Amino acid sequence: MGRPYEFEEIERKWQARWLETREFEASETDERPKYYCLEMLPYPSGKIHMGHVRNYSIGDAIARFKRAKGFNVLHPIGWDALGLPAENAALKHGAHPEDWTRANIAHMKRQLQRLGFSYAWDREIATCDPDYYRWNQWFFIQMWNKGLAFRKKGAVNWCPVDLTVLANEQVVDGRCWRCDAQVVNKELEQWFLRITRFAEPLLADMEGLPGWPSTVLTLQRNWIGRSEGSEIEFALADPTHGGGSIRVFTTRIDTVYGATFVVLAPEHPLTSRLAASNPALGSYVETTVREDKEKRRLGELEQTGIATGHDALNPFTRERIPIWVANYVLMDYGTGAVMAVPAHDDRDFAFARAHGLAMKAVIQPPSADLDARTMQNAFTDHGTLVDSGEFTGLPSLDAIRAMNAKIEREGLGKSAVTYKIRDWGISRQRYWGTPIPMVYCDECGILPVRETDLPVLLPRDVTITGKGESVLRNNRSFLETTCPGCDRPARRETDTMDTFVDSSWYFYRYTDPRCSDGPFRPEVARHWFPIDVYIGGIEHAILHLIYARFWTKMMRELGLTEDAEPVDVQLSQGMVIKDGAKMSKNKGNVVEPDEVVAQYGADTLRLYVLFEAPPEKEVSWTDQRLEGPARFLQRIWRFVDNEVDALASASPIEGNESWNELESSLRKKTHQTIQRVTHDIEERFHLNTAIAAIMELVNEMYRAVEPRPLRDDTWKVVREATEAVILLLSPFAPHVAEELWETLGYGNGLRSASWPRFDSEVAADEKTTFVVQVNGKLRGRIEVSVYESEEEVKRLALADENVKRFTEGKELRRVIVVPRRLVNVVVSP
Questions:
Q1: What pTM was estimated for this model as a whole?
Q2: Which of 43, 413, 613, 730 could be disulfide-bonded to 737 (CB atoms 3.0-4.6 Å)?
Q3: For residues 611 and 28, what is the distance between their CA atoms, to the nearest angstrom?
């Protein structure tokens, strides 16, 4: 009997050794090429979950691979440690938010170390450390000085019973999550960061991000929402109601002659004025502002609206048209008011039909004669103008130019660009966040704290109630201060910062985590940036990644960095799901990582989450499938343990041996596997196919040692294959790889080993020829490796120059691959 595979003993042995030797620390003075590998930092909620395990296993595999390839790898970790969940936990458990957070950090750190992730623990940060949030405050002051931080009224969710502001996630079906009171919309003075100043570079610089998923970039483009159009003034027809006008934004000024009513957002300032003398309108607004804004944005709610009883004047026709308020218009897009052209806008069409409002067709398609009385759908394409005064007969694009010239000439409006993105409201009426470093003085007004007085510390002596004003407002030792301008008594700002501030720049702090003269030294950050690969869930595609990109651009204005963008390659990993749903305590489908590690070991769990699917796809958790990677590791262990004496005595391959058929076959498979695994990690991050290739090689090794006895040259080839398997396996199952490497006689462990190289002549990569057809006709041939994925075969087929002649400018409908034979491309005629 050989040695049993005691995974817990082996894993703890190597984890202790890695910590003792500080194996994974990095230095900017290292002359090797740098590689910055980063996963999004966790919130210390108490336990890591399978989403963490998958995210960090992907990053760790890449980091270990790059180290073995000769890179100086920076692979840090920290804690997104401030935020509302800590206050909720304090309420629930009677703990101080800081104590709860620190205890969770300690527990989760032990969990991550038990999984063997190769982090540079010397660089660990927690955003609740004053040494960290001091620099949040410093950044805020710099933005204040540059006009990027400002204060204005903003809408918040307000609980009238608990007398507190609620985060969106604390509003459930329009009610307070704690007391079930009906939440109201309230205007409060809030602090904002002027992210809109960077809207254009945030859009334009996406062109320089080919390493980002197209889905992430599309989501960001839609969130920023650049629209070119016109701002037009619709005068109020009733001068007795304060006069003035309604400014609308439209991308289709060519339809203005078809505007038959104006619609205001419930939050529009004019709506409040009109509602003051209209109780029915006031009641409608009060109800509507509680609706889910994102569902309103996406059109997922039933359209509702109410007439105000007032009219506006169409500036082109001078006709009176009614003013309505409706839930499908949003204050945070355009001007919060639209000219409704129901014949040429889908939402306006549905609203007009539902409320019996007038409809007028003013754009005609080439092959039809539209009549508003019989239209079944809005016509939203460009066409030729009709019933449009002096512009009748013009094509849409010509009319847009001519109408824009008219409104600018006659003072009726102007051409404009608008964005959906709004300035970032960072005020939180909470305790557990970065104090905003501003002071209110009756003599001097609003001033920033002196930089020499940073950080403004969170006081410990607070009682979290979840009700009433911020606990900081009721803490006299915090609230009362002296004015930095005149040294007279003053009051501190008691709002704290949104926790997205913490995570918008932490990746720069990792490069210089103990710097006390600034957030980091620019020359040190310059060595490590940009981040070579940044890994995190698709749910962070918008807010976190947009804020991180904004913060980098802001820091470039401050001279801290030269980077336009912080991340070279962004990898969005799929979720771990069970029973068809994302793992969640509420759904009762959670699998605890600690329990899996105790039963199967860290290497098995890591192998499982990496082997089940490519990183960007979901992993469907099945307990039974853990047996597969467990058996595979046992199989490798048995092979080395059974053959260790013969392997140890085998001499290295010198290059002058004469191989028999079995030896040649195994050598070929070994070098093909090295080539395939290297390619799959380096070029595609397809870790699942890399693991599959290693499994295939292990099968070949078992076959090679069956015909006993083996000649010496055979054992040379088997040793070459065995060493390759251990090294190739090390990014995915590092503990067992370290132990087996030591078993083969390498006392210094994998730290002194290099990634194996393949000999292209030995690999002699087998190729096959695909015939490429376009709509059933032969248009080309491509020669590719038999190991290439179907996706790569499709890409190569479509890239063939002759094939491109017959597909350019046509709609690609589908591409069908018949393995090793045919690619059929179907395009529009």
A1: 0.88
A2: 730
A3: 33
